[in-house]
């Protein structure tokens, strides 16, 4: 297929690379991130603007940080909708507001296009390994058309429901991940403060019911103090804002989600917006006046 890809940042670059390696023709446009040299070397074409890209593409994929970024790319000056051809499918793989997603889909439909929301989970590691979890919303026909592309970028692909359902699933995912990070951070901090090696506690817990990917990956990050971003706190904050604002609209209380958001905010106040989200532990360490450390380190 001839695929227009908008957003070749930390996640988008390897995702686009997998599509290119599978034989698809890539059309790119300068957005927030520089166009990746390796994609150009593989034969990608750089378009002058998003409407120029849309005028040539069969499928347009967006992988952008937040709702306003997607809205600008689609409907701003020289946006995708201005060049959209009838029958083109717009696939938004960003993590954005479910309500805005339904509005965007309606506007794309009015211009003659199809729309699938397909946010992902798995971070930079999953993007590079083509092992992303992809949660999809859209019509059966639109999903069937783009499902082969998802198979190139991910391993766990689920058609959740109509437009917006993918974004709802992603918000649910981010609630679970944030609360797991908080739980792992509290547990390892407890162990360290009690004078027990948190590395050995983590190893013990990995063999039991408390085992999780967060304990495996982010627990090790907390112990090793490696907080270079795979997924930035600022982006996880954005996702929890979506959760909490949607919960207010639904008349729903999410008390532990709010607690996790406050811990992320404490990290941001200390200059940590660009830390990996596992660095939430540093907010708890500040409250405890104790940092996690291996015994004897």
Automatic annotation (TrEMBL):
Residue ranges annotated for the 6-phosphogluconate dehydrogenase NADP-binding domain, each copy included: 2-161
The protein's Enzyme Commission number: 1.1.1.60
Keywords: NAD, Oxidoreductase
Example GO BP: glyoxylate metabolic process
Source organism superkingdom: Bacteria
Active site: 170
Alphabetical list of SUPFAM superfamilies matching this protein: 6-phosphogluconate dehydrogenase C-terminal domain-like, NAD(P)-binding Rossmann-fold domains
GO molecular function, one term: 2-hydroxy-3-oxopropionate reductase activity
Domain 3-hydroxyisobutyrate dehydrogenase-like NAD-binding: 164-284
PANTHER family per record: 3-HYDROXYISOBUTYRATE DEHYDROGENASE-LIKE 1, MITOCHONDRIAL-RELATED (PTHR43060)
Top EC class for this record: oxidoreductase
The protein, known as: 2-hydroxy-3-oxopropionate reductase
